[in-house]
């Protein structure tokens, strides 16, 4: 029986197979150590959700071109670079069940590998005169960096408002999916106005994607990240923000104190999870996620109704109903 993601990829199966070679070529190096690390990265790649968004957006917007392959490689190089650097910043020893680059080769090598991946993306753009794609991706890098720094700045107080939360995830998470959809449609030759609509579509899906990730922190299933990890790392996610905004001041102070001073204790984490669940935080986050999905689908249906667009709708369902 075919997996849901395989069915979604059906309209672009050939393109994704060709992309695999394109991406491997973009990562090659004459330095033996780098080449060995690149091979390791390619071998442990994830579901490649962002390249799928690129090729389906291009298909929906009129059809894939040589530029689409450049866009997909550029976004994936950038995304991989940010993951390598994130693991260094977070001192993470694992990524998707594999050892992280910094765990195997230490921080100095990992930082240089991230720099190499980013520079390869820049060269890929310049060498192929893909300056519009470069602009789209450079903006995504800027947004992601600002979003991460905004989160660090605001997280110190552990009392951020919902509006700030959405600003953070719009920049930190949604910007890359927005860039993928904008780059995919741009590669198909649409106008800048239409490309902006694809960007808005991607941004809304990116926000829904992050809310889904927030909800995993309060679930009971093994989704590849430990239960309550966001609480332990003192990250203010939507279910928690809603719960804190809808409780009395003394209870709010108590929960913030648990997160600020006792988040490493499993009992405190369970207490916070129970508080969020009983305060309606999970239902509220589910509702907001669905609103963003519905808005994205409305935008998409004004842009295209071909098999690429139909597959994009299925992809929306997949990323918001996934279990890991």
How would you portray this structure in words?
With 324 residues, the chain is an all-alpha fold. The chain has helices spanning 4-9, 13-26, 32-43, 49-61, 66-89, 101-127, 131-155, 162-187, 192-216, 229-232, 238-245, 249-262, 266-278, 281-303, 307-321; strands spanning 94-95, 98-99. Strands 1-2 form a two-stranded antiparallel sheet. Helix 4 packs across helix 8, helix 5 (66-89) runs parallel beside helix 7 and helix 8 packs across helix 9 (192-216). The longest helix is centred in the middle third of the chain and has 27 residues, at 101-127.
Compile the SSE list and pairings.
Blueprint: H1 4-9, H2 13-26, H3 32-43, H4 49-61, H5 66-89, E1 94-95, E2 98-99, H6 101-127, H7 131-155, H8 162-187, H9 192-216, H10 229-232, H11 238-245, H12 249-262, H13 266-278, H14 281-303, H15 307-321
Antiparallel strand pairs: 1-2
Poorly predicted ranges? 220-225
How large is the radius of gyration? 20 Å
Q: What is the chain-wise order of helices and strands?
A: HHHHHEEHHHHHHHHHH
> What is the level 1 CATH name?
Mainly Alpha
């Amino acid at each position: 029986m075919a997996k849901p993601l395989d069915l979604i990829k059906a309209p672009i199966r050939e393109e994704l197979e060709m992309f695999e070679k394109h991406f491997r070529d973009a990562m090659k190096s004459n330095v033996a150590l780098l080449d060995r690390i690149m091979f390791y990265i390619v071998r442990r790649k994830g579901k490649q959700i962002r390249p799928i968004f690129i090729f389906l957006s291009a298909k929906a917007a009129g059809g894939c071109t040589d530029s689409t392959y450049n866009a997909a490689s550029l976004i994936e190089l950038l995304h991989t670079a940010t993951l390598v650097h994130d693991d260094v910043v977070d001192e993470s020893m694992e990524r998707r069940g594999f050892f992280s680059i910094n765990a195997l080769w230490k921080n100095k090598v990992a930082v240089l590998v991230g720099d190499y991946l980013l520079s390869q993306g820049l060269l890929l753009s310049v060498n192929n005169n893909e300056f519009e794609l470069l602009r789209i991706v450079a903006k995504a890098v800027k947004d992601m960096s600002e979003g991460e720094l905004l989160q660090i700045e605001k997280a110190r107080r552990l009392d951020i408002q919902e509006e700030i939360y959405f600003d953070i995830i719009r920049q930190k998470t949604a910007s890359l999916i927005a860039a993928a959809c904008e780059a995919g449609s741009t590669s198909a030759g649409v106008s800048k106005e239409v490309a902006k609509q694809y960007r808005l579509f991607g941004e809304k899906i990116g926000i829904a994607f992050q809310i889904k990730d927030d909800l995993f922190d309060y679930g009971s299933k093994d989704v590849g990240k430990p239960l309550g990890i966001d609480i332990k790392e003192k990250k203010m996610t939507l279910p928690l923000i809603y719960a804190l905004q809808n409780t009395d001041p003394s209870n709010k102070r108590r929960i913030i104190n648990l997160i600020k001073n006792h988040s490493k204790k499993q009992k405190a984490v369970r207490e916070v999870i129970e508080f969020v669940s009983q305060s309606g935080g999970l239902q509220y986050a589910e509702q907001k996620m669905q609103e963003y999905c519905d808005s994205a689908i409305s935008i998409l249906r004004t842009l295209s109704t071909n098999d690429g667009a139909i597959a994009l709708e299925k992809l929306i369902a997949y990323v918001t109903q996934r279990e890991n």
